[in-house]
Amino acid sequence: AQKITQTQPGMFVQEKEAVTLDCTYDTSDQSYGLFWYKQPSSGEMIFLIYQGSYDEQNATEGRYSLNFQKARKSANLVISASQLGDSAMYFCAIEAPPTGGSEKLVFGKGTKLTVNP
Amino acid sequence: NAGVTQTPKFQVLKTGQSMTLQCAQDMNHEYMSWYRQDPGMGLRLIHYSVGAGITDQGEVPNGYNVSRSTTEDFPLRLLSAAPSQTSVYFCASSEAGEAFFGQGTRLTVV
After folding, report:
1. What is the nearest CA distance from A49 to chain B, expressed in angstroms?
2. According to the model, what pLDDT value does residue A4 have?
3. Would you say B55 and B70 are in contact if contact means Cβ atoms under 8 Å apart?
4. B43 to A47: CB separation less than 8 angstroms, yes or no
5. CA-to-CA distance for B31 and B109, rounded, in angstroms?
6. Nearest partner of A108 among B100, B108, B57, B43, judged by Cα
7. Which of A47, A98, A104 is nearest residue B58 as measured by Cβ atoms?
8. In A6-117, which ranges are E strands?
9. % helix, strand, coil for chain A, step of 5
10. Tens digit of each residue's pLDDT (9 = 90 or more) over A64-81
C-alpha cells in the first residue's frame, strides 16, 4: 500500500518569499508518480505539478518546482515568489505503480498555506 | 471546454434515502474516479473505472455503487444514505500525469 505524509498542518510565508511544503511517501513500487494539487477556499482541485519516479530532472512549472529526493522518499513542493493568491490547501499524492491513467491517487492530509502581505 | 462536470453542487438527504451523483467529462478520457474528502483529510478513493464497462473498488467503497456505460459518464450511487456519508465528493477524469477534477458535490445526510 502507498502512503503520503505531509507533516506541516499549516505554513505561513511573507508575500514574495519562497516556501517549501514537505511531502514524504512510502511505496514498495519502483515505478510511481507524484502529484501536487492546490485547493483554494472555493474548493476546486487544481493540478500543479507531476514527477515520475524515473524522471532524471526535478519537475518545474512556472513558480512551482518539485524537490525530488528519491533515496529519502521525499517530494517537496517549492513555491517561489509567493503571492496572496497562493493561500490555499496543498495536497501531495502518489500513484504506484502508474497505470497510464492516474485514476488511483493516494493523497496526504494536506498543508494549509497562508501568504501574508 | 467544460472538462469535468458534477451535479448537483449541494445536496441534503435524509438517512436511508438514495441518490445518484452525476459526473460527466468531455475530454474523452478512459480513466475516471470518485473520491470523498472529509474535514482534515485528504481525498480518499471510492471507486474508479479504466474504461466503459470496467469499474473497480477503491479504498472506501462501502455504501456506494458505480457504473460506466459510456466513456463520458460515471455516476456514483448511494443506495441508503447514512450520516457517515456526509462529505464532499469529487469526480476526476484522468490521463497519465494529471487528473482533472470536477467542482465537487457537498452532501449532507441528516
Report:
1. 8
2. 97
3. no
4. no
5. 29
6. B43
7. A104
8. 10-14, 19-21, 24-26, 33-39, 46-52, 60-61, 64-69, 74-79, 88-95, 106-107, 111-116
9. 5, 50, 50
10. 999 999 999 999 999 999
Strand partners, B12: B108
Indicate whether B98 pLDDT > 90: no
Amino acid, single-letter form, for residue B79? L
Q: How confident is the model at residue A9 (pLDDT cuts 50, 70, 90)?
A: very high
Of A35, A45, A110, which is closest to B90 when you measure between CB atoms? A45
How many Å lie between the alpha carbon of B23 and the closest alpha carbon of chain A?
A: 15
Model pLDDT, residue B1: 60
Contact between chains at B42 and A108 (C-beta distance less than 8 A): yes
- The DSSP element (H or E) to which B65 belongs, if any, is strand B64-66
Max mean pLDDT range (A98-102, B2-6, B16-20): B16-20
Tell me phi and psi for residue A44, to 5 degrees: -75, 155
